Amino acid sequence: KMEMKLNAEILNEQNSRFIETHKPEYHFLAQSLEKKGVQVNDVIKKLQELQVAIPSWALGAGGTRFGRFSYQGEPASLENKISDVGIIHALTNTAGAISLHIPWDIPKDYNAIKELAASLDIKFDAVNSNTFQDQPSMNKSYRFGSLCNTDSSVREIAIQHNLEVIDTGKKLGSNSLTVWLADGSNFPGQQNFQEALQNTKESLKHIYKSMPDDWKLFIEYKPYEPNFYSTVIQDWGTSLMLAEGCGQRAYTLVDLGHHLPNTNIEQIVATLMMKGKLGGFHFNDSKYGDDDLTVGSVKPYALFLIWNELVYGMENNPNNPSPAWMIDASHNIKDPLEDLLQSLEAIQIAYAQALLVDQKGLQEAQKQQDATLCQEILQDAYRTDVRPLLREARLCSSAAIEPIASYRSLNIRNQLIKERGLHTVASGL
Ligand code: PSV
Ligand code: MN
Ligand code: MN
Protein backbone atom coordinates (compact mmCIF):
# COMPACT_ATOMS: atom_id res chain seq x y z
CA LYS A 1 0.00 0.00 0.00
CA MET A 2 1.20 3.47 -0.89
CA GLU A 3 1.86 5.55 2.19
CA MET A 4 2.35 9.33 2.46
CA LYS A 5 2.42 10.80 -1.01
CA LEU A 6 3.69 14.35 -1.10
CA ASN A 7 2.53 15.83 -4.38
CA ALA A 8 3.38 19.16 -6.03
CA GLU A 9 0.12 20.69 -4.91
CA ILE A 10 0.77 20.03 -1.23
CA LEU A 11 4.32 21.34 -1.52
CA ASN A 12 3.24 24.43 -3.45
CA GLU A 13 0.82 25.30 -0.75
CA GLN A 14 3.55 24.84 1.84
CA ASN A 15 5.96 26.99 -0.15
CA SER A 16 3.48 29.82 -0.47
CA ARG A 17 4.04 30.48 3.24
CA PHE A 18 7.75 31.05 2.75
CA ILE A 19 8.14 32.47 -0.70
CA GLU A 20 7.74 36.14 0.24
CA THR A 21 10.56 35.95 2.75
CA HIS A 22 12.67 33.77 0.53
CA LYS A 23 12.66 35.72 -2.73
CA PRO A 24 14.25 39.01 -1.56
CA GLU A 25 16.80 37.11 0.54
CA TYR A 26 17.77 35.05 -2.45
CA HIS A 27 18.01 38.00 -4.84
CA PHE A 28 20.13 39.99 -2.43
CA LEU A 29 22.57 37.11 -2.02
CA ALA A 30 22.59 36.21 -5.71
CA GLN A 31 23.39 39.81 -6.61
CA SER A 32 26.27 40.14 -4.20
CA LEU A 33 27.69 36.78 -5.31
CA GLU A 34 27.42 37.71 -8.99
CA LYS A 35 29.36 40.88 -8.20
CA LYS A 36 32.15 38.68 -6.88
CA GLY A 37 32.12 36.71 -10.13
CA VAL A 38 30.12 33.68 -8.95
CA GLN A 39 27.88 32.06 -11.57
CA VAL A 40 24.90 31.66 -9.27
CA ASN A 41 22.86 29.65 -11.78
CA ASP A 42 25.62 27.07 -11.96
CA VAL A 43 25.67 26.76 -8.19
CA ILE A 44 21.89 26.27 -8.10
CA LYS A 45 22.12 23.65 -10.82
CA LYS A 46 24.83 21.74 -8.96
CA LEU A 47 22.79 21.84 -5.76
CA GLN A 48 19.79 20.49 -7.65
CA GLU A 49 21.87 17.68 -9.08
CA LEU A 50 23.50 16.44 -5.89
CA GLN A 51 21.85 13.22 -4.72
CA VAL A 52 22.78 11.61 -1.43
CA ALA A 53 21.78 8.05 -0.64
CA ILE A 54 19.93 7.31 2.59
CA PRO A 55 20.95 4.10 4.34
CA SER A 56 18.08 1.84 5.25
CA TRP A 57 19.42 1.62 8.82
CA ALA A 58 19.10 5.36 9.48
CA LEU A 59 15.32 5.43 9.20
CA GLY A 60 14.69 3.97 12.61
CA ALA A 61 16.24 5.33 15.79
CA GLY A 62 19.84 4.27 16.18
CA GLY A 63 21.42 3.49 19.48
CA THR A 64 24.46 2.10 21.18
CA ARG A 65 25.33 -1.26 22.66
CA PHE A 66 23.90 0.07 25.93
CA GLY A 67 20.44 0.48 24.57
CA ARG A 68 18.19 1.79 21.93
CA PHE A 69 15.15 3.97 22.40
CA SER A 70 12.82 3.29 19.54
CA TYR A 71 10.83 5.98 17.84
CA GLN A 72 7.15 6.03 17.05
CA GLY A 73 5.99 5.04 13.59
CA GLU A 74 9.34 3.55 12.61
CA PRO A 75 9.49 1.61 9.35
CA ALA A 76 8.86 -2.10 9.91
CA SER A 77 9.54 -3.31 6.38
CA LEU A 78 11.63 -2.51 3.33
CA GLU A 79 8.53 -0.96 1.75
CA ASN A 80 8.19 1.36 4.74
CA LYS A 81 11.85 2.33 4.52
CA ILE A 82 11.60 3.18 0.84
CA SER A 83 8.50 5.22 1.45
CA ASP A 84 10.32 7.13 4.22
CA VAL A 85 13.11 7.97 1.79
CA GLY A 86 10.38 9.05 -0.63
CA ILE A 87 9.18 11.58 1.94
CA ILE A 88 12.68 12.98 2.44
CA HIS A 89 13.30 13.09 -1.29
CA ALA A 90 10.01 14.84 -2.03
CA LEU A 91 10.83 17.50 0.56
CA THR A 92 14.43 18.08 -0.51
CA ASN A 93 14.99 16.62 -3.99
CA THR A 94 18.39 15.57 -2.58
CA ALA A 95 17.75 12.01 -1.41
CA GLY A 96 17.10 10.14 -4.64
CA ALA A 97 18.67 6.85 -3.54
CA ILE A 98 18.55 4.23 -0.81
CA SER A 99 21.40 2.00 0.32
CA LEU A 100 20.36 -1.46 1.48
CA HIS A 101 21.99 -3.70 4.06
CA ILE A 102 21.73 -7.42 3.45
CA PRO A 103 20.37 -9.65 4.99
CA TRP A 104 18.30 -7.02 6.82
CA ASP A 105 16.69 -5.71 3.63
CA ILE A 106 16.19 -8.72 1.36
CA PRO A 107 13.14 -7.96 -0.81
CA LYS A 108 10.34 -10.50 -0.87
CA ASP A 109 8.89 -9.25 -4.12
CA TYR A 110 11.58 -7.63 -6.26
CA ASN A 111 9.23 -6.19 -8.85
CA ALA A 112 7.00 -4.57 -6.27
CA ILE A 113 10.01 -3.06 -4.51
CA LYS A 114 11.43 -1.73 -7.76
CA GLU A 115 8.09 -0.26 -8.74
CA LEU A 116 7.65 1.43 -5.40
CA ALA A 117 11.14 2.95 -5.57
CA ALA A 118 10.67 4.12 -9.16
CA SER A 119 7.34 5.73 -8.31
CA LEU A 120 9.16 7.83 -5.70
CA ASP A 121 12.11 8.56 -8.02
CA ILE A 122 14.47 6.55 -5.83
CA LYS A 123 17.42 4.52 -7.10
CA PHE A 124 19.26 1.70 -5.40
CA ASP A 125 22.69 2.84 -4.32
CA ALA A 126 25.50 0.56 -3.08
CA VAL A 127 24.42 -2.64 -1.36
CA ASN A 128 26.12 -3.39 1.94
CA SER A 129 27.16 -6.82 3.12
CA ASN A 130 27.08 -7.89 6.74
CA THR A 131 29.77 -10.25 7.98
CA PHE A 132 29.82 -8.72 11.44
CA GLN A 133 26.86 -10.73 12.72
CA ASP A 134 26.38 -14.49 12.61
CA GLN A 135 23.32 -15.56 10.66
CA PRO A 136 21.01 -18.40 11.72
CA SER A 137 21.88 -20.35 8.57
CA MET A 138 25.58 -20.47 9.52
CA ASN A 139 27.21 -23.49 11.11
CA LYS A 140 30.38 -21.48 11.81
CA SER A 141 30.97 -18.13 13.50
CA TYR A 142 32.48 -14.75 12.67
CA ARG A 143 33.61 -14.49 16.28
CA PHE A 144 37.22 -14.30 15.17
CA GLY A 145 36.67 -12.47 11.93
CA SER A 146 35.12 -12.99 8.52
CA LEU A 147 37.19 -12.30 5.40
CA CYS A 148 40.35 -12.43 7.53
CA ASN A 149 39.56 -15.62 9.45
CA THR A 150 42.30 -18.20 9.85
CA ASP A 151 39.67 -20.86 9.09
CA SER A 152 39.17 -20.98 5.33
CA SER A 153 35.64 -22.36 5.68
CA VAL A 154 34.60 -19.20 7.59
CA ARG A 155 36.19 -17.03 4.91
CA GLU A 156 34.25 -19.00 2.32
CA ILE A 157 30.94 -18.33 4.11
CA ALA A 158 31.75 -14.62 4.23
CA ILE A 159 32.72 -14.54 0.55
CA GLN A 160 29.54 -16.40 -0.42
CA HIS A 161 27.48 -13.92 1.56
CA ASN A 162 29.03 -11.05 -0.39
CA LEU A 163 28.21 -12.82 -3.66
CA GLU A 164 24.60 -13.16 -2.56
CA VAL A 165 24.54 -9.46 -1.73
CA ILE A 166 25.80 -8.72 -5.25
CA ASP A 167 22.99 -10.89 -6.65
CA THR A 168 20.38 -9.02 -4.63
CA GLY A 169 21.84 -5.72 -5.81
CA LYS A 170 21.85 -6.86 -9.43
CA LYS A 171 18.15 -7.66 -9.29
CA LEU A 172 17.42 -4.17 -7.99
CA GLY A 173 19.61 -2.27 -10.43
CA SER A 174 22.30 -1.35 -7.93
CA ASN A 175 25.86 -1.27 -9.26
CA SER A 176 28.19 -1.19 -6.31
CA LEU A 177 29.04 -3.15 -3.20
CA THR A 178 30.27 -1.59 0.04
CA VAL A 179 32.28 -3.78 2.36
CA TRP A 180 32.76 -2.70 5.94
CA LEU A 181 34.50 -5.27 8.09
CA ALA A 182 34.42 -5.60 11.83
CA ASP A 183 37.46 -7.88 11.56
CA GLY A 184 40.29 -7.29 13.96
CA SER A 185 41.53 -8.31 17.39
CA ASN A 186 41.05 -7.25 20.98
CA PHE A 187 44.35 -8.32 22.49
CA PRO A 188 47.99 -8.07 21.47
CA GLY A 189 49.19 -11.32 19.98
CA GLN A 190 45.66 -12.57 19.33
CA GLN A 191 45.98 -12.18 15.58
CA ASN A 192 48.84 -12.46 13.14
CA PHE A 193 48.62 -9.06 11.43
CA GLN A 194 50.21 -10.20 8.18
CA GLU A 195 48.13 -13.33 7.85
CA ALA A 196 44.88 -11.46 8.61
CA LEU A 197 45.64 -8.82 5.98
CA GLN A 198 46.70 -11.40 3.43
CA ASN A 199 43.52 -13.43 3.95
CA THR A 200 41.41 -10.28 3.67
CA LYS A 201 43.12 -9.34 0.43
CA GLU A 202 42.56 -12.76 -1.13
CA SER A 203 38.90 -12.79 -0.02
CA LEU A 204 38.29 -9.29 -1.41
CA LYS A 205 39.94 -10.23 -4.69
CA HIS A 206 37.58 -13.18 -4.97
CA ILE A 207 34.57 -10.93 -4.35
CA TYR A 208 35.87 -8.31 -6.77
CA LYS A 209 36.30 -10.87 -9.54
CA SER A 210 32.74 -12.09 -9.02
CA MET A 211 31.20 -8.66 -9.54
CA PRO A 212 29.60 -7.76 -12.88
CA ASP A 213 31.91 -5.75 -15.15
CA ASP A 214 30.19 -2.45 -14.50
CA TRP A 215 30.16 -2.77 -10.70
CA LYS A 216 32.36 -0.94 -8.23
CA LEU A 217 33.68 -2.24 -4.93
CA PHE A 218 33.96 0.26 -2.06
CA ILE A 219 36.24 -0.69 0.82
CA GLU A 220 35.70 1.07 4.15
CA TYR A 221 38.36 1.43 6.81
CA LYS A 222 38.08 2.05 10.53
CA PRO A 223 40.78 2.17 13.21
CA TYR A 224 38.76 0.70 16.09
CA GLU A 225 35.49 -0.85 17.16
CA PRO A 226 34.18 -3.44 17.64
CA ASN A 227 37.72 -4.71 18.04
CA PHE A 228 39.67 -2.32 20.21
CA TYR A 229 43.25 -3.47 19.81
CA SER A 230 43.51 -3.76 16.05
CA THR A 231 41.35 -3.58 12.98
CA VAL A 232 42.43 -5.38 9.83
CA ILE A 233 41.58 -2.45 7.53
CA GLN A 234 42.59 0.21 9.98
CA ASP A 235 43.15 3.22 7.74
CA TRP A 236 42.82 4.72 4.25
CA GLY A 237 46.28 3.53 3.28
CA THR A 238 45.35 -0.08 3.98
CA SER A 239 42.06 0.34 2.14
CA LEU A 240 43.84 1.91 -0.85
CA MET A 241 46.38 -0.91 -0.89
CA LEU A 242 43.57 -3.47 -0.96
CA ALA A 243 41.66 -1.55 -3.61
CA GLU A 244 44.76 -1.38 -5.79
CA GLY A 245 45.31 -5.09 -5.22
CA CYS A 246 41.78 -5.86 -6.41
CA GLY A 247 41.75 -3.75 -9.54
CA GLN A 248 40.49 -0.65 -11.31
CA ARG A 249 36.90 -0.75 -10.10
CA ALA A 250 37.80 -1.13 -6.44
CA TYR A 251 37.92 2.07 -4.42
CA THR A 252 38.44 3.44 -0.96
CA LEU A 253 35.36 4.69 0.88
CA VAL A 254 35.81 7.52 3.35
CA ASP A 255 33.42 7.49 6.31
CA LEU A 256 33.85 10.70 8.30
CA GLY A 257 33.50 8.90 11.63
CA HIS A 258 36.23 6.37 10.93
CA HIS A 259 39.27 8.35 11.94
CA LEU A 260 41.33 8.92 15.02
CA PRO A 261 40.68 12.34 16.62
CA ASN A 262 42.07 15.32 14.68
CA THR A 263 42.94 13.35 11.58
CA ASN A 264 43.20 15.64 8.58
CA ILE A 265 40.38 14.09 6.57
CA GLU A 266 40.44 16.75 3.86
CA GLN A 267 44.01 15.83 3.07
CA ILE A 268 43.07 12.15 2.80
CA VAL A 269 40.29 13.14 0.40
CA ALA A 270 42.77 15.11 -1.73
CA THR A 271 45.27 12.26 -1.89
CA LEU A 272 42.66 9.67 -2.81
CA MET A 273 41.16 11.84 -5.53
CA MET A 274 44.56 12.53 -6.98
CA LYS A 275 44.93 8.76 -7.30
CA GLY A 276 41.42 8.38 -8.75
CA LYS A 277 40.53 6.09 -5.86
CA LEU A 278 37.89 7.90 -3.83
CA GLY A 279 34.83 5.80 -4.64
CA GLY A 280 32.35 6.46 -1.89
CA PHE A 281 31.67 8.83 0.93
CA HIS A 282 29.76 8.36 4.19
CA PHE A 283 28.69 11.59 5.89
CA ASN A 284 28.14 11.90 9.62
CA ASP A 285 29.70 13.84 12.47
CA SER A 286 31.32 13.07 15.77
CA LYS A 287 33.00 14.60 18.78
CA TYR A 288 35.05 11.57 19.76
CA GLY A 289 34.91 8.80 17.22
CA ASP A 290 32.38 6.91 15.16
CA ASP A 291 29.50 8.63 16.92
CA ASP A 292 27.31 8.70 13.78
CA LEU A 293 25.86 12.09 14.74
CA THR A 294 23.95 14.44 12.45
CA VAL A 295 26.18 15.76 9.65
CA GLY A 296 27.56 19.20 10.45
CA SER A 297 26.33 19.18 14.04
CA VAL A 298 29.78 19.28 15.66
CA LYS A 299 32.46 20.27 13.14
CA PRO A 300 30.92 22.29 10.32
CA TYR A 301 34.18 24.01 9.34
CA ALA A 302 35.90 20.64 8.91
CA LEU A 303 32.99 19.57 6.73
CA PHE A 304 33.47 22.67 4.59
CA LEU A 305 37.21 22.02 4.22
CA ILE A 306 36.45 18.45 3.16
CA TRP A 307 33.91 19.67 0.60
CA ASN A 308 36.45 22.16 -0.64
CA GLU A 309 38.76 19.25 -1.52
CA LEU A 310 35.87 17.28 -2.99
CA VAL A 311 34.92 20.18 -5.25
CA TYR A 312 38.55 20.70 -6.25
CA GLY A 313 38.92 16.99 -6.98
CA MET A 314 35.71 16.81 -8.99
CA GLU A 315 37.01 19.64 -11.15
CA ASN A 316 40.65 18.60 -11.41
CA ASN A 317 40.75 14.82 -11.17
CA PRO A 318 38.75 13.43 -14.09
CA ASN A 319 40.33 10.04 -13.33
CA ASN A 320 38.29 9.91 -10.12
CA PRO A 321 34.66 8.87 -10.68
CA SER A 322 32.00 11.00 -9.08
CA PRO A 323 31.92 9.64 -5.51
CA ALA A 324 28.84 7.78 -4.30
CA TRP A 325 27.41 10.01 -1.57
CA MET A 326 25.67 8.53 1.44
CA ILE A 327 24.65 9.62 4.92
CA ASP A 328 25.85 7.15 7.55
CA ALA A 329 24.42 8.78 10.64
CA SER A 330 22.02 6.75 12.68
CA HIS A 331 22.60 7.54 16.29
CA ASN A 332 19.74 9.71 17.23
CA ILE A 333 17.23 10.62 19.84
CA LYS A 334 15.46 12.80 17.30
CA ASP A 335 12.81 11.90 14.79
CA PRO A 336 15.02 10.01 12.29
CA LEU A 337 13.44 11.76 9.32
CA GLU A 338 14.02 15.22 10.79
CA ASP A 339 17.56 14.15 11.60
CA LEU A 340 18.17 13.13 7.99
CA LEU A 341 16.68 16.40 6.75
CA GLN A 342 19.18 18.23 8.95
CA SER A 343 22.04 16.10 7.61
CA LEU A 344 21.06 16.78 4.01
CA GLU A 345 20.88 20.49 4.75
CA ALA A 346 24.37 20.43 6.30
CA ILE A 347 25.80 18.56 3.31
CA GLN A 348 24.27 21.03 0.87
CA ILE A 349 25.42 24.03 2.91
CA ALA A 350 29.03 22.84 2.96
CA TYR A 351 28.87 21.94 -0.73
CA ALA A 352 27.45 25.35 -1.67
CA GLN A 353 30.08 27.13 0.41
CA ALA A 354 32.82 25.10 -1.25
CA LEU A 355 31.41 26.04 -4.66
CA LEU A 356 31.80 29.70 -3.69
CA VAL A 357 35.53 29.42 -3.03
CA ASP A 358 37.42 31.73 -5.36
CA GLN A 359 39.61 28.97 -6.81
CA LYS A 360 41.63 31.26 -9.05
CA GLY A 361 42.25 33.76 -6.28
CA LEU A 362 43.25 30.94 -3.97
CA GLN A 363 45.74 29.52 -6.43
CA GLU A 364 47.22 32.96 -6.96
CA ALA A 365 47.51 33.57 -3.22
CA GLN A 366 49.12 30.15 -2.79
CA LYS A 367 51.64 31.04 -5.48
CA GLN A 368 52.38 34.30 -3.71
CA GLN A 369 52.72 32.32 -0.46
CA ASP A 370 50.22 34.67 1.14
CA ALA A 371 48.84 32.49 3.92
CA THR A 372 46.66 35.30 5.28
CA LEU A 373 44.92 35.81 1.95
CA CYS A 374 44.49 32.03 1.47
CA GLN A 375 42.64 31.86 4.77
CA GLU A 376 40.59 34.97 3.93
CA ILE A 377 39.46 33.39 0.68
CA LEU A 378 38.38 30.13 2.32
CA GLN A 379 36.65 31.83 5.20
CA ASP A 380 34.89 34.35 2.99
CA ALA A 381 33.15 31.38 1.36
CA TYR A 382 32.58 29.57 4.65
CA ARG A 383 31.09 32.62 6.35
CA THR A 384 28.52 33.19 3.62
CA ASP A 385 24.99 32.27 4.67
CA VAL A 386 24.19 30.11 1.66
CA ARG A 387 20.79 28.91 2.84
CA PRO A 388 18.88 31.09 0.35
CA LEU A 389 20.71 29.20 -2.44
CA LEU A 390 19.54 25.88 -1.02
CA ARG A 391 15.98 27.16 -0.74
CA GLU A 392 16.05 28.39 -4.32
CA ALA A 393 17.45 25.06 -5.55
CA ARG A 394 14.65 23.21 -3.78
CA LEU A 395 12.01 25.62 -5.05
CA CYS A 396 13.27 25.17 -8.63
CA SER A 397 13.02 21.38 -8.14
CA SER A 398 9.44 21.59 -6.84
CA ALA A 399 10.60 20.51 -3.38
CA ALA A 400 10.04 22.30 -0.09
CA ILE A 401 11.60 25.69 0.63
CA GLU A 402 11.66 24.73 4.32
CA PRO A 403 11.71 20.92 4.60
CA ILE A 404 11.55 20.57 8.37
CA ALA A 405 8.90 23.23 8.84
CA SER A 406 6.76 21.57 6.17
CA TYR A 407 7.41 18.09 7.57
CA ARG A 408 6.09 19.37 10.89
CA SER A 409 3.15 21.36 9.64
CA LEU A 410 2.03 18.45 7.48
CA ASN A 411 2.07 16.26 10.59
CA ILE A 412 3.91 13.56 8.73
CA ARG A 413 5.14 11.68 11.78
CA ASN A 414 1.62 11.50 13.16
CA GLN A 415 0.41 10.08 9.91
CA LEU A 416 3.15 7.46 10.00
CA ILE A 417 2.19 6.57 13.55
CA LYS A 418 -1.42 6.16 12.45
CA GLU A 419 -0.37 3.87 9.62
CA ARG A 420 2.30 1.88 11.44
CA GLY A 421 1.51 2.13 15.10
CA LEU A 422 3.11 3.67 18.14
CA HIS A 423 5.41 0.85 19.18
CA THR A 424 7.27 -0.13 16.09
CA VAL A 425 10.75 -1.47 15.75
CA ALA A 426 12.64 -0.82 12.57
CA SER A 427 13.44 -4.11 10.93
CA GLY A 428 17.06 -5.12 10.91
CA LEU A 429 18.18 -3.07 13.88
C1 PSV B 1 30.11 0.65 11.41
O1 PSV B 1 31.13 1.52 11.78
C2 PSV B 1 29.32 1.25 10.30
O2 PSV B 1 28.87 2.50 10.81
C3 PSV B 1 30.11 1.44 9.01
O3 PSV B 1 30.37 2.81 8.82
C4 PSV B 1 29.23 0.90 7.91
O4 PSV B 1 29.22 1.70 6.76
C5 PSV B 1 27.89 0.86 8.60
O5 PSV B 1 28.18 0.53 9.94
C6 PSV B 1 26.96 -0.16 8.03
O6 PSV B 1 27.51 -1.46 8.06
MN1 MN C 1 30.07 3.81 6.98
MN1 MN D 1 30.67 3.72 11.02
Short descriptors:
single chain; 429 residues; 3-stranded parallel beta sheet; 16 helices; globular; binds alpha-D-psicofuranose; binds manganese (II) ion
Write up what this structure looks like.
This is Putative sugar isomerase. It comes from Flagellimonas maritima. GO terms for molecular function: L-rhamnose isomerase activity; metal ion binding. Keywords: Isomerase, Manganese, Metal-binding. The protein has 16 helices and 11 strands. The protein has 429 residues and is α/β, with parallel strands linked by helices. The protein has a single domain, classed as Divalent-metal-dependent TIM barrel enzymes (TIM Barrel, Alpha-Beta Barrel). Helix 5 links the parallel strand 2 and strand 3. The mean pLDDT is 96. The structure holds alpha-D-psicofuranose and manganese (II) ion (MN) (2 copies). One manganese (II) ion binds next to loops.
